[in-house]
Amino acid sequence: MSEIVTAGILVIGDEILSGRTKDKNIGFIAEYLTNIGIDLKEVRVVSDDEPDIIAALDALRHRYTYVFTTGGIGPTHDDITADSVAKAFGVGIDHHPEVVARFRERWSEQDLNEARLRMARIPDGAELIQSATILAPGFKIGNVIVMAGVPSIMQAMMDIVAPKLKSGVRMLSDTVRANAREGDIGSPLRAIAAAHPDTIIGSYPFMDEEQKPNTNLVVRSRDPEKLAAAMAAVKDMLAGLNITR
Amino acid sequence: MSEIVTAGILVIGDEILSGRTKDKNIGFIAEYLTNIGIDLKEVRVVSDDEPDIIAALDALRHRYTYVFTTGGIGPTHDDITADSVAKAFGVGIDHHPEVVARFRERWSEQDLNEARLRMARIPDGAELIQSATILAPGFKIGNVIVMAGVPSIMQAMMDIVAPKLKSGVRMLSDTVRANAREGDIGSPLRAIAAAHPDTIIGSYPFMDEEQKPNTNLVVRSRDPEKLAAAMAAVKDMLAGLNITR
């Protein structure tokens, strides 16, 4: 249980890079992973281009415990994620009999055309991520979890796959509102961060309800005692501030 | 004017990877770049970690015409973007006299502490990105544009830096609503995409106002005639569809 479990996200899609579609998956997966004790370390967004997908996938899958991909598993010509993943792993890809059987239950012979059958193409050896409400399945191969780009479907897939993942010691987090501007607390905060090496202290400015610059201070640690000690030091520092805002 | 100008985005910040903050900058910059004729090719998100920042920056800046970074230029210990950029370029970094002079106009001697002075640290040779309303400046060094993480400030910085960038032939785009499910048009759409190689055809499913699965088809090209020809083929295909939804 003391292992640190890490992850990368690979978002695949021209529509994100053109700005036509605003990604909502990164934030969702990031929060989800934090809650189940997996450290998200890196995100990449690439276009619907096979060499780019393979290069990013290889970089991430060799570096992190898990890689989550979103997008590119639909029925059209620009959906090339499954083929790219198969190439990255050096395995074959074919229509998965179980998926084809489910498609035949759902669609008539006429509707189950070549395009829809593409959604049944799964790399050899992959494990399906599916449910009664998910039409085109995702899959897990090695440490790579391949999911849909449509947020509601991706979220359903996360719920299916999450219980199968190993998770590490959860990163704990505590937040205090400084009622001070970042610039007024930067120097003492740096000293506290240096004195509490097993914690991560973040400083996030925001405009408060009085339209004054304010700051949230977030202390994170896997060790509850170290977190509490660092947070106590932060609160002592804030209590001793002599500033006017 | 026939040059293709490309870009990468590097988002820097633990708070994005933990899911605490939901990024709004990628979508904004993506759309902005499309509108000024710059092709966004890749996005990366990394933590507040100097080796990770430098590695991602080096990968992106050698590959694309421009790199836009967001985050990590505030006054606290976790703001390490400027120092990381200086190291990546192998140049020194020091308090920029022009920025310090502006800070002295704004803050009293007591308020202009070490933390705030950190925001005046600019890599040698960088050009400032600033205005009367921007407190801590961004900067441009080589092909790297360093901006704030707070969306409103980042957006102001984009407006300042954009006129100085070279832009290529703008990618044109046209969209048609298919009134069909993706799976019903995947095969003919693939044939059209193959027959129109200087265009990019994207297929984006959505639930329409009648809660039926529907699809937007987007044709993109730098050549208006080729775009029009491909879009005409798409519309002919849609008009000839014999499907019930």
Automatic annotation (TrEMBL), chains A, B:
PANTHER family: NICOTINAMIDE-NUCLEOTIDE AMIDOHYDROLASE PNCC, NMN AMIDOHYDROLASE-LIKE PROTEIN YFAY. This is Molybdenum cofactor biosynthesis protein. Pfam families: FLAD1_M, MoCF_biosynth. SMART domains: MoCF_biosynth. Residues 8-168 form the MoaB/Mog domain. InterPro entries: CinA, FLAD1_M, MoaB/Mog-like_dom_sf, MoaB/Mog_dom. It comes from the Bacteria.
